[in-house]
Amino acid sequence: MPNMAPKKVPMPEQEPDVRNHNFEEVAQGYTEKMAVEEATRCLNCKNKPCVSGCPVNVRIPEFIAKVAEGNFAEAYKIVTSTNALPAICGRVCPQENQCEGKCVRGIKGEPVAIGRLERFVADWYMANCTEKAKRPQSNGHKVAIIGAGPAGLSCAGSLAQKGFEVTIFEAFHTAGGVLVYGIPEFRLPKEKVVAKEIEKLKELGVNIMTDMVMGKVLSIDELFDEMGFEAVFVGTGAGLPNFMKIPGEDLLGVYSANEYLTRINLMKAYQEGYDTPISHCDDIAVVGGGNVAMDAARCAKRMGAKNVYIVYRRSMDELPARAEEVHHAMEEGIEFRLLTNPVQILGDENGVVRAIECVKMELGEPDASGRRRPVPVEGSNFEIPVESVIMSIGTSPNPLIRSTTPGLEANRHGCLVADDHAATTREGVFAGGDAVTGAATVILAMGAGKTAAESIEQYILSKQN
Amino acid sequence: MFQIVKKEQLNSAVTRMEVEAPFIAKKAKAGQFIIFRIDSHGERVPLTIADTDAQRGTVTIIFQAVGRSTKMLAQMNEGDFLADFVGPLGKATELEGYKRACVIGGGVGNAIAYPSAKALYNMDCEVDVIAGFRSKDIVILEDDFKKVCNHLYITTDDGTYGEKGFVTNKLQELIDAGNQYDLVIAIGPIPMMKFVSKVTEPYGIKTLVSLNPIMIDGTGMCGGCRVSVGGEIKFACVDGPDFDGHLVDYDELMKRNTFYKEQERHDAEHCRLLNQTV
Ligand SMILES: Cc1cc2nc3c(=O)[nH]c(=O)nc-3n(C[C@H](O)[C@H](O)[C@H](O)COP(=O)(O)OP(=O)(O)OC[C@H]3O[C@@H](n4cnc5c(N)ncnc54)[C@H](O)[C@@H]3O)c2cc1C
Ligand SMILES: Cc1cc2nc3c(=O)[nH]c(=O)nc-3n(C[C@H](O)[C@H](O)[C@H](O)COP(=O)(O)OP(=O)(O)OC[C@H]3O[C@@H](n4cnc5c(N)ncnc54)[C@H](O)[C@@H]3O)c2cc1C
Ligand code: SF4
Ligand code: SF4
Ligand code: FES
Ligand SMILES: [Mg+2]
């Protein structure tokens, strides 16, 4: 008889007023007992609606059944048969729109906590099994991967398992992409989780070369012609920050979210003993309403800001961030200034931010995206006094690769053109993740990396015959 | 890890190093830069590529010890390893098609100007170099410049070496004497680049300056290095570091570069490598 409790087993979390002063993980993970209890809420549905909601088709009811039996090792095997980075996805997937969004238990009450269970299984395995991955026999074919974000890592993992000799070229000094420079430690621990997942790839034989800005230090043509790679996967993400182009963005104290988060997460400006400087201030505004904005705001709070404002031009219903992150941000004391849009940033006599001038907005007719279009309310301008402003209004793909690779086409947003099999317009070059879709999600990037791995295998093997 | 294979003190504050970085050595062009990180706790710091030796796979940097990271770098020795050394970043300086150029350096900016002078000279352009310094004891690269230009003019602010005065005085003098430059490159302190651009503007001489805003990634992903050029936002690490000297908003750049002054002052006092106050 399944457990018919209408709610998920609650996740142990640090108290809001404690956690908003530290960078330790907010959600602390299920115990074995909690996991088993939650697992018994799953009805093991015949038609598996949840699986269709997962971009990499994790065999959800099967792994949950093993959790319910207490066979966590087997559950891990089932999860990792389709998802190479479960400890990460379990933490950061927008489950409400994906697997859990399709769960039948969600019709009356809360869906099964699929993400939490996935995380539990992965964490349990990392804590209890130290067995190294077996390095497969090499098939002698060399594949180059550009970018060590989720797309590149998952492509590398899939290919390495099949015996390909994979080299990842990463521009930064650490592999992980947004997982290390963007998503903060308190949501996704870097050493405990990300570095461990990457270590597993190395055990499979994946070679990671950091400090390699491709397009600058080596071109894709050189990878083919001089270094003997037979195929290339481009997973360079969408890391170029947009600014609003309003007056005052040159003032001291205006950051892109990328810069602010990179200083904190990758360069560890929040920790004693690291050299990278960062501004500390009492009042700070974050412009935008996505995951990135929530992360920047919650980091600012942890850096000691007293008042942190999310300035967003639409209403609560349109906030694109994951529901859980919005909820956490509110608990931590982030103030939401909704239906509010900045018109300029004001500075003092030294050129330092002193306020952000905003206008009130109201929602008009639906626009192309189906969301009601915000329109400014004439004469409603007001100032919010702040010493820093973080622009978190989206990013676009970096042109470095496409501008140095003849024959590689991009659309008008700068996203690489790739078909359903991740093939680009250039033979032997495949692409996926944010570089193709624009800013999206970790799991979609991983799915694309996996698809590309299959295409690359077919491409190389068919060329041989 | 990247090994320091040669180290040489050019003056009391400026050091030249050769670092083993074969991929970069093969690709780098005049005007491009690297970013280094001392160790796992270091910040990312940009330095211009002063020279390369593709055969030996080395990249030369010349830097002035001004704060925490550059002081630590100056403490390192031949045989030591840097955690990170990434490049070549930025656009190469566009040097094709000029007949007569004046390359102007100020202080350690001479190290940044040197590769452009060398490249122009090797492309059969007639090159005048004006190398400006505060005083005799900090003159660097005199012999190096001599090999890559037609005329070398050294100026010192206090007149202790070469000609007394600023590089702008010398430039004006050369223009007045009838020298017809089709390119001026000015690299040094921000005010110097600003005033050189003011000198050349009335004559419509194409003037390139190399900007040094605060950077992190150097690949266009943080926007921290943004500068205003001709009223537009540019990211110096990917759109530059060279820009049209007549269009740059120098005052804004100067302000932005002071943003972390307080923290940097504090940081500079303690050296992690020596574990002592310096
Ligand atoms: C702050 C923040 C929070 C987010 N939160 C979530 C979340 O909670 N859930 C979720 O699902 N998604 C979230 N996302 C989105 C998600 O992180 C991205 O969709 C995902 O990381 C995309 O993966 P990717 O591999 O395509 O690119 P990236 O992760 O961007 O990785 C690209 C990599 O390529 C490297 N690179 C770029 N150019 C070059 C080059 N020329 N040469 C060599 N290397 C290069 C980059 O340095 C980087 O390491 C968030 C994003 C941000 C910024
Ligand atoms: C493209 C470029 C090329 C450069 N080339 C050279 C060179 O060839 N030789 C040389 O001596 N110097 C060069 N510089 C300047 C050099 O990067 C700074 O002197 C160095 O960063 C100072 O760091 P610090 O920790 O030693 O000193 P700090 O005390 O931390 O800083 C001193 C000043 O340097 C600037 N600065 C600090 N951190 C950074 C950073 N991460 N990025 C950029 N500027 C920063 C700021 O204006 C700061 O006030 C270059 C800068 C750029 C942007
Ligand atoms: S990978 Fe993401 S979407 Fe798929 S089951 Fe796991 S949490 Fe759900
Ligand atoms: S839809 Fe929900 S209840 Fe049904 S199998 Fe999937 S997780 Fe279990
Ligand atoms: S240094 Fe980050 S965009 Fe230029
Ligand atoms: Mg410094």
UniProtKB/TrEMBL annotation, chain A:
Question: If you read the UniProt record, what top EC class would you report for this enzyme, in one word?
Answer: oxidoreductase
Q: Name one Pfam family in it.
A: Fer4_20
The segment(s) forming the FAD/NAD(P)-binding domain are: 142-449
Task: Give the keywords, sorted.
Answer: Oxidoreductase
Q: Which is an annotated GO molecular function term of this record?
A: glutamate synthase (NADPH) activity
The record places domain Dihydroprymidine dehydrogenase at 19-128
The highest taxon in the source lineage is Bacteria
Q: What is this protein called?
A: NADPH-dependent glutamate synthase
Source species: Ligaoa zhengdingensis
**Gene designation per UniProt:** gltA
Automatic annotation (TrEMBL), chain B:
The record's listing under NCBIfam families reads: PRK06222.1
Q: Which residues bind [2Fe-2S] cluster?
A: C222, C225, C237
Regions annotated as coiled coil: none
KW Flavoprotein (keyword) present? yes
**Gene Ontology BP terms:** pyrimidine nucleotide biosynthetic process
Cofactor(s) needed for function = [2Fe-2S] cluster; FAD
Could you tell me what the cofactor note in this record states? Binds 1 [2Fe-2S] cluster per subunit.
A GO molecular-function term, please? metal ion binding
Q: This chain belongs to which protein, by name? A: Sulfide/dihydroorotate dehydrogenase-like FAD/NAD-binding protein
PANTHER family linked: DIHYDROOROTATE DEHYDROGENASE B (NAD(+)), ELECTRON TRANSFER SUBUNIT (PTHR43513), DIHYDROOROTATE DEHYDROGENASE B (NAD(+)), ELECTRON TRANSFER SUBUNIT-RELATED (PTHR43513:SF3)
